[in-house]
């Protein structure tokens, strides 16, 4: 591994999403050709709205072309030749698409809210494209509804990092609304505890609201929690003091997961722990090691904040050591940067989402949406959910609320159309 390679890898690959970067690059061309920055000091020229509409048409045409390239990739997937699709050549990191993406319509939708085409100095950004992709995904899911399962990450997606889902959280009525429309809900979080009480403490706002709601009792059963990525399953239980009941592993594990050997789990966690200990020592980190039944991690000593670079270094070293170990090839694991901690969990969110799909009777990836904040390719734990279902990449809990409102609005439009 040359130094150059390490610099490229460490600075770029895992901190970029190649599909988003590619779309951003395509949109940069009409921005350069049509955005007319000089109009700011030449007020007699064409109006802002006229210029914007020309630019919007160009952007939207590009999004239509990308939409078709995605459709071509899906056709290749169905024929078993996805490695030969045009999109795969252009963006080698793309994997499976579970549904088409309504990119053209989504661009217009977001443009009416973010005024991307009206900008003359700031080109379409990473966040613009990320939000257009989210809208395109939910448009497609709603149009080909019903959306049968929505899974949510916890920290940063439902509540701020390290906080709890308190009763005033605006996401609560939106999740209940989704349940009333018939969607099942899974909270797929890395937070790993074997006791219901710990999850009640993190999620009580939502659990209490569901308990108090006038929803039929059988519908309330449509919420489960999958903790430790894919290690603990709890179902809603109105008669339990914590409103959650542990589901025995044998009742929900996928057949492949029953093959995970206890001896392998211990071996993998031992290797991870020793790597974490080395990094803590070498980087002089004020950290405590936390070893659990299905995870090992480092957390800061009281009041301490780790810098991003240290956290990423710790994840990348541990991940690499595990990847090259024989047990790391036998057993799925997830090493990630939790904002101010680093954890290595047994399994990952693809297994967590698959377990939710199975729990609810075998829901397909194209009828499932996972909403999360960690979608970078290394050191992020929601990324793996892409193997199991469609996804939306949000940046904070307010964006989750916005996304759910968008879904509600699109759903109403769809209902009106079919009436
Ligand atoms: P998520 O965003 O809901 O996936 O939660 C991630 C956070 O859960 C981590 O950053 C940790 O602070 C916390 N956490 C608590 N226990 C565990 C564990 O066993 N594994 C991983 N993360 C944990
Ligand atoms: Mg998160």
Automatic annotation (TrEMBL):
The keyword Kinase does not apply. GO terms for biological process: inosine salvage; nicotinamide riboside biosynthetic process; nicotinic acid riboside biosynthetic process; nucleotide metabolic process. Its cofactor is Mg(2+). Homotetramer. IMP-specific 5'-nucleotidase involved in IMP (inositol monophosphate) degradation. Keywords: ATP-binding, Hydrolase, Magnesium, Metal-binding, Nucleotide metabolism, Nucleotide-binding. The keyword Plastid does not apply. Belongs to the ISN1 family. It catalyses: IMP + H2O = inosine + phosphate. Its EC number is 3.1.3.-. It holds the Pfam family ISN1. PANTHER family: IMP-SPECIFIC 5'-NUCLEOTIDASE 1. GO terms for molecular function: 5'-nucleotidase activity; ATP binding; magnesium ion binding. It is an enzyme of class 3 (hydrolase). This is IMP-specific 5'-nucleotidase 1.
